[in-house]
Amino acid sequence: MTKYFFSLILLASICVSAQQLKSPSEFLGYELGTQFTRHHEVVDYYKYLAESDPDRVQLTVYGKTNERRPLILAYVSSEENLANLETIRQEHLKDTEGTGNSSKAIVWLSYNVHGNESVSTEASMKTIYELLTKKSSYLENTVVIMDPCINPDGRDRYSNWYNQYKNTPYQVDPNSKEHHEGWWSGRSNHYMFDLNRDWAWLTQIESQQRLKMFNQWLPHIHVDFHEQGVNNPYYFAPAAEPYHEVITDFQRDFQVTLGRNHAKYFDANGWFYFTKEVFDLLYPSYGDTYPIYNGSIGMTYEQGGSGRAGLGVITGIGDTLTLKDRIAHHFTTGLSTVEVSSQNAEKLNDEFRKFHQNKEFKYKSYVLKGDKDKLDVLKSLLQKHNIEYGDLTSGSYRGHSYSTGSNGSLSINKNGMVVSTDQPKGTLVKVLFEPNAKLSDSLTYDITAWSLPYAYGLDAIASTSIVSSQNMQETSVSSNISSGSYAYLTDWNSMDDARFLATLLNNGIRVRKADHPFTIKGKSFDRGTLIITKGDNENKDGFIQTLQTIATKFKKDITPTSTGFVDSGKDFGSSSIQMITKPKIAVLSGGPTSTLRFGEIWHFFEQQLHYPLTIIDDDYADRVDLNDYNILVLPDGRYGNHFNEDQLSKLKNWVRQGGKIIAMGGSIDALDGEKGFGIEKKKTEKDSSEKSPQPYKDWERERIKGAITGAIFKTKVDNSNPLAYGYGSDYFSLKLGSSSYEYLKNGNAVYLEQNTKPFSGFAGIQAQNKISESLIFGVENFGRGQVVYMVDNPLFRGFWENGKLFFANALFMVD
Ligand SMILES: [Zn+2]
């Protein structure tokens, strides 16, 4: 009896009724909006709700961040819906095939993708509480999926920083330290990537793990909660032009329906807001566009505040903006979104089915060919998006040719593949593969070109008819390495090869490279071929075993040879077959460098190449002895004349004695000029439209004539230059701006000639003139060392796959 009585009490205390659920303020022990809640406390509150009300809240841990914080999702709905959650999900997914009969609205709310836009996670707690209490009627026909924090590492970076630096009580004076985060803000994730640029490229573990969940649901509605500058009024849908042409009338109209409902609440409270401006729907890697291209109504909501606002700050018009105000606004739009979705559940389901059926796209199939390693990288991305593809082993296909920009054909004799729009993910296929996204307006928030064949360095055509795939037998790569050989040879043309080399060097294996093509026993080898000789590695214990293990891991095709005597070219004992240095690498951070651009390099070394780097902050760089390093990487940033005469002369001496600088983007500005190296900024004549005064009302249109908003250009490659080993005779470069430099006297590896019309994306006419005959990548020999210039960014957002080998060449091949 006593036992029974106690279990009843226990049950009652766990399953408290909705009225007894603790609000966030009651649970946390402070009024919501008076503190920033740390991530583990947020997780605790969600856990508490799931434990207290398990019939209406389910929690899933879907992964972990780089810094080991949990990533969680809460499913919130009525008792009946949650009991049938899996059935609801299956029925909903069948709608993408046209066979489902779903009736519930699926709403996904994502908070705090930018860590220092810190109100979002706080608002999420108030929102879930309200849904479970006063607004529970919405849940009868609606499943709400809440991700309280997409970017916990960034958000805790901000919260912890703010807690350290805030005044007590908080200081509303915007000059106070608590409103100035410094070089590394909480916006990005651990590797300083912007997770709201990563939905399509999936370079970051947060995105990779989240997308698995997203693809299990494909919600009707997705909201990405953000913050913008302190003085901006609230922004909600409908979004600004340009809209990508695949966005359906219903997707446009429903944004208006939602916006009008939000406006009703904002009007009643006298709150300011705007719509239809700034935030457009084009670039596919955002938290609004990516869901849209998957059939959702995807939206960005922006509160004014972000890392500048703290708990309270004086705004431009002299009012005080508090965290409580910010919570109230995001809370209101969040609930209003669920309200409208619940009222329109049937319509949302009908239209979701239609979205997946009517695909009348001009191009039906994209046919690609290229190196197997490169195709494999693309396949792995497509798998993450649930995009189906097939193999092609032979045939000739006609259509729009990516390499010429006009009609042509593509012949395949072994490594080919096809991706068609005739599939549930057809819209996404079109957006990611089409040669040129149609721009309804060139004033956009982000890059205007991203076409995957260019990014992945594959030859392709877009066909207006459906191309069916062929069955390919997976050919097994044999890397049986016998100990009797004189040397082992392997090609050099992909990031996989660079990883293979990095792993060999990390394991103490000595590797040489061919700077000239050669043939041996009738087989030809190109520049950059790796030559691993028995002679070099005689003293290395377990050499053959180690080589075998590493070759197997990277599926490398190794050619053993019993002689160093070549048919043509240089014998392996020749002094021109150089040993590859195992470089010690330093990368500058802080100061003038951009966090995003530094982060790409950091991520490249640790997560892609798997090679050690030393990060040296600008604060103490002067006190570091550069002679301890072979390579200094200067990430893009705002350098101006960052290095004084003394520092420049130190750098020059170090390079003269054999050091190597890799100067990227804006860092080149710090090296040019009389006292610097040989690089020269391009001087261009102003054209006539720049000389004459322009009307004020046109200033923005005029400004973009000088802009390149991320466009793709066909550039020339000199692949006899070590910086370009492994490439063909041209390269499609993603240009992010119009900064341009003259050709080097020698060593231009990649460059633009006169014709500078972009192959894809937008470039203003003045910008096109400015980049004519300019350097993209090059090497200046200086004393015994080198300076490698990278005007364009081969590591941009980690997704421009075909640029990465240039960076690897700069590390290992240039000497
Ligand atoms: Zn944001």
What do you see in this structure?
- α3 (39-52) packs parallel to α6, α6 crosses α11 (323-343) and α9 (249-269) packs across α11 (323-343).
- Strands 27-26-28-29-34-33-32-30-31 form a nine-stranded mixed beta sheet, sandwiched between helices.
- It starts with a helix and ends with a helix.
- The protein has 815 residues and is α/β, with parallel strands linked by helices.
- 30% of the residues lie in helices and 20% in strands.
- The protein has 23 helices and 34 strands.
- α6 links the parallel β3 (105-111) and β4 (142-147).
- The chain binds zinc ion.
- Residues 114, 117, 196, 226 line the site of zinc ion.
* CA(first)-CA(last) distance: 84 Å
Count of individual beta strands: 34
What's the oligomerization state?
Answer: single chain
List each distinct ligand once: zinc ion
Low-confidence stretches: 1-14
Question: What is the number of helical segments per DSSP (H or I, 4+ residues)?
Answer: 23
Output the keywords.
815 residues; alpha/beta; nine-stranded mixed β-sheet; six-stranded mixed β-sheet; 34 strands; disordered N terminus; binds zinc ion
